Amino acid sequence: MSSLKGTYDQLEKDVLAAMSKPKKSFWLALAVSSLMFAVGMGCWGWQIYKGLGVAGITNPVGWGVYITDFVFWVGIAHSGTLISAVLFLFRARFRNSFNRTAEAMTIFAVMTAGLFPLIHLGRCWLFYWLFPYPNERLLWVNFRSPLVWDVFAVSTYFTVSLIFWYVGMVPDLAIVRRYSTGVRQWIFRIFSLGWRGTRYQWEHYGKLYMFLAALATPLVISVHSVVSWDFAMSVIPGWHTTIFAPYFVAGAIFSGTAMVITLVVPMRRIFNLEKYITVSHFESLAKILLFTSMIVTYSYIVEYVLAFYSGHEFEIAHFLYRTFGDYKYLYWLMLLCNSVLPLTIFVKKLRRNLAYLFILSLFVNVGMWLERFVIIVSSLAKDYDPYAWGTYTPTLIEAGITLGSFGMFFTFFLLFAKYLPVLSITEIKEISE
Amino acid sequence: MSKQWIFDEKSDFLNKLRELVDNGVDPHALETITPFPVHEADHILHTRTSHLRFFTLAGTLTGLIAGFAFTIFTVMDWPLITGGKPLISLPPFLVIAFELTILLGGILSFVGFLALAKFPSVKNILQPPEEFGNQFVIQQRGEE
C-alpha cells in the first residue's frame, strides 16, 4: 500500500504548483482583465467629473445598469457561501473541490457589488451618510428604508464571508509557509498565526468553522432577500410581490453556480488540477444549476399567475408590457438562457461535458444579468401614469463601468489564484483517507 | 525529558496513542500534531469540547439586543414619522437586528477562537517550531 503521506505530499505539491511560475495564459488573462478594470475606473472618473448626466438613467427610469450590476454581483456572491457553508452543513463532499474558489469569488463579488451603490450616487464621496453615526445634523438614518437594510446586509455579508474564507485558509497557509522562503515565508508566517496543528488548535478550529457555517447559512438567505426588498417594498407593478425574496435567492444561487463553473473550468486547465477537481464534481454542480434553474422558471410562472389571478390591471398591463413591450427581446433572451438552455443538463452526456457546461454557464451569466435588467427597467419604464412613462437606453459610460466591474472581479480572482492555495488542501486530505 | 514519536500512517499513530494511554500515561501530558483533525485521537485523549460556543452565543445575543436597542434609540432621539408608519416599527428593525446578530456572532466567534487557541502565537511566528509536514506526531511532556 502506498503511504498516505506520499499522497498528501503530492497533493501539496500539485496545489502549490499553481502558486509558482504561471503560464503565459495567466499573464494574458491578467493583462486583459486589468485593462478592463482600468477602463471601468476611467469611465467612473469621467462620471464623477461630469456628473451623473453621462449615464442614461433619468426620469422615470432612475435605476438602470448600475443597480442591475449591483444585484447581479450580489447574486454571484451567493454560491460561494452556498458551496462552502450550506454544503458543509449537509456534508456534501464534492464541495471541497470548489469551496476555496467559491469563497474567494464571494469576497470579490461583494466588493464589486459594494461599489455600485457608490457609483450610482451623484456625490459618491458622501456615501458614509448611509451609515448611522452621530453627526452635526443630529439626524439618524431611516431604518425603515430597505436601502439602509442593504447597507447592513451587504457589509455583514462581506465581513462574515471574509472571516469564513480566512479561517478556512489558516491551516493551508501554514502549509504554504513550509514551502516558501524569504519575505514570502514571513508573510505566510504572520497570516498562518503560528499554526501547528495541535489537538486543541484543531478542536477550536473545527468548532469555529461549524459556527461560521451555521451563521453564514441564514445570512446568505437574508442578504438576497434584503436586496429583493429594495424592489418589493415599493408599490411599483412587477416589483410589489411577496415571492421576490425566495425568487431572488434562488436566482442568486443559480447565477453564482454558473459563475463558479465559468471560473473553475479554465482554472482547472491552467493549473493542471484535473486530478482533484473531477468531472463528477462538476456534474454535482450542474445538478445544482439545473435545480435552481427550475426554481427560477417556476418563479417566472408564479409572477404571471399572481398578476393575472389578482385582476390588478396595472400588474396585468405590466406583465404584458414585459413580455411584448419595448424590452421584449431581452425578456425572451432571458427566458432562453435561464429556463430553456439549462434543461439540457438533464442529458447526462451534456452535464459531464465540461466544454458544454462552460458555454452554458456563460449563457446563464448573461441570462441572469438580463433578468435583473428586465425586472428593474421594464417596471420603472411604465408604472401607473402614462404621462410619466419613458424608456431607457444605457450609455457607453454605463457599459464601460459594467465592463470594468468584470475586469475588477477577474483581476482580483486571478491574483488570488496566483498567491493563495486554490484548493482546500487540508480538507481534501481529511476526506481522502 | 520529553519524548516524541513520529508516524507516516494515521493507524500507527492511533495505535501508539492507545498504547500510551492504556499504559497509564496521563492524556494531559500528551500533545499531538496532525496534518488534519483526527477525531479518533480526541476520543482516546478525552480532548475537552471547545468553549467557543459561549463566545458565539454572547456575540449573537449582543447583536440581537444591540440591533433593536439602537434602532429604537434613534427613532426616539429624533422622532420623525416616515410613510405614516409607527416610530417603533419592529418588522424593519428586525432586519437590522438579524444582520447584527450574525455580524457580532461571527466576529466574536473569531475573536473567541483567537483567544482560546492562543493565536496569533508570536513565539511561533518569530521562530517557527519544527515542521512535521504530513506526519502524525505524539509528544509527551516530561515529568518534573
Report on the structure:
The complex is a heterodimer of chains A (433) and B (144). Chain A has 433 residues and is an all-alpha fold. Chain A has one domain: Up-down Bundle (Formate dehydrogenase/DMSO reductase fold), CATH 1.20.1630. Chain A has helices at 4-17, 24-50, 65-89, 99-120, 146-179, 182-191, 199-232, 244-270, 279-310, 313-324, 328-340, 348-351, 354-381, 396-419, 425-432. The model of chain B has no long low-confidence stretch (mean pLDDT 89). Chain B folds into 2 domains: 3-49 and 130-140, no CATH class; 52-116, no CATH class. In chain B, strands 1-3-2 form a 3-stranded antiparallel beta sheet, covered by helices on one side. Chain B has 144 residues and is mostly helical. At the A-B interface, helix 1, helix 5, helix 7 and helix 15 of A face strand 2, helix 2, helix 3, helix 4 and helix 5 of B.
Number of helices of chain B: 5
Class from secondary-structure proportions of chain B: mainly alpha
Largest β-sheet summary of chain A: none
Order of SSEs of chain B, N→C? EHEHHHHE
- Spatial gap, N to C terminus of chain B: 9 Å
Strand order of the largest sheet of chain B: 1-3-2
* Count of β-strands of chain A: 0
Mean of pLDDT of chain A: 91
The CATH architecture category of chain A equals Up-down Bundle
Helix % of chain A is: over 70%
Identify the overall geometry of chain A: globular
Q: Can you tell me the overall shape of chain B?
A: elongated
* Rg of chain B (CA only): 24 Å
User: How many distinct folded domains of chain B?
Assistant: 2
Order of helices and strands of chain A: HHHHHHHHHHHHHHH
Strand content of chain B: 5-15%
Radius of gyration of chain A from CA coordinates: 23 Å
Number of helices of chain A: 15
Alpha carbon gap, first and last residue of chain A: 13 Å
Mean pLDDT of chain B: 89
Q: Which stretches of chain B are low in confidence, meaning pLDDT under 50 for 5 or more residues running?
A: none
